[in-house]
Amino acid sequence: MVKIKAEPFAFPVKHDELALIVIDMQRDFAEPGGFGASLGNDVSRITRIVPDVKRLIQGFRNAGLPVIHTMECHRPDLSDLPPAKRDRGNPALRIGDEGPMGRILISGEPGTAILPELAPVKGEVVIEKPGKGAFYATELGTVLQQKGIKQLVFAGVTTEVCVQTTMREANDRGYECLLAEEATESYFPEFKAAAIAMIRAQGAIVGWTAHVDDILESIIHA
């Protein structure tokens, strides 16, 4: 069995049960003028991981392995947006309001779209999620079950919020989870570091972490 060099110990790869999940690599989180920037964040921290995320996506495509994309967004009528979520953040610009790239985090709006460099190709699943975790109120669990997926490699943003939340949801559902360290990021470097430490603490209590090069090398030979 092929293993990926990982922390806290090697991750055994089951090639026919492995998929990549790319979390929320959206314009609203990564581009100037988007929702992330409106909250005062340095979005260049997000865009700098794009090359590594792209390499990871291409590696999975080349290996014939599933790639699943998620987007955090809400219905145009905001019926799936709890007031408790809308009321947080920047009081001057909230989810559903008009922003420089259309209504913020609303399905179908330009800012909600995945960055063009990482856009899904025909046949790849795109999950629109109203929450931080990708399993909440979505079809993700059904999709994974239908594809026979039991191992998940994670990339995307932000490490401590939507990525970690989805990994914890997946862990509780019995999936083996691996985070690609260079292909995930936070607006706050200390938050990313803390999330990585929590994920792999106590013998991979939530999951494993590994470098992109080691992941790509292993799936080629899996």
Automatic annotation (TrEMBL):
Keywords: Hydrolase. GO terms for molecular function: hydrolase activity. Residues 19-207 form the Isochorismatase-like domain. InterPro entries: Isochorismatase-like_dom, Isochorismatase-like_hydrls, Isochorismatase-like_sf. Pfam families: Isochorismatase. PANTHER family: FAMILY HYDROLASE, PUTATIVE (AFU_ORTHOLOGUE AFUA_2G08700)-RELATED, PEROXYUREIDOACRYLATE/UREIDOACRYLATE AMIDOHYDROLASE-RELATED. This is Cysteine hydrolase. It comes from Rhizobium anhuiense.
